[in-house]
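Checklist before submission:
- one chain only
- standard amino acids only
- sequence pasted in full

Submission:
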Amino acid sequence: MPLPPPARPSRRSLLAAGTGAAGAALLAGCSDGGGSAGRPRAERVPPERRIRDSAVRETRALLERYDATLAAHPALGPRLAPLRASVAAHAGALAPAGAPPAATPAPSGSPVAAAPPAGTASSVPASPAPSAATPSAAAVPARPEAALAALADAERRTAAAHTAALAGAPGELARLLASVAACGGVHAYLLTTAPTGSEPS
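Returned file contents:
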């Protein structure tokens, strides 16, 4: 006995199946091609760049603290100028390629901090004295000794931040951060114990 022919699918069922397949393909295409576009930009920044940016922010904040201290206590210029120049060099070394410089020349007519003792000017670049309008100048203690102690504390905090970033930094950047952190410890020591006119080794 011959088998009956298979039932033909209705037009409605064919349309429903085609619509479902098209929708699934469209959803798959959106998820494959647009998934990364919706991510926050921070997730696409390489870890090394994030570490560098954070280290530069910390170092430039320290540099501003030097500027504020020099604005409040110009007589400390000979002692602070070489340390400030070192911090500015650290900010430049940590900055990613193409980043703006850490310090800018003093405006025309601004006083310039006293130069280091004779024989040291060639190795330490002269640093401009900051304007009294530096935002953090009001936070500088009135007594020079207290201002130096506060600056030493800022050096220690910055060094601690650089040390904490070592764990996630690649080899070359980790070595740089370790070196800068060690310099910060030396600066803190010189700010609290070295006589006026001393410079970092």
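Reviewer check: The two ends are 106 Å apart (CA to CA).
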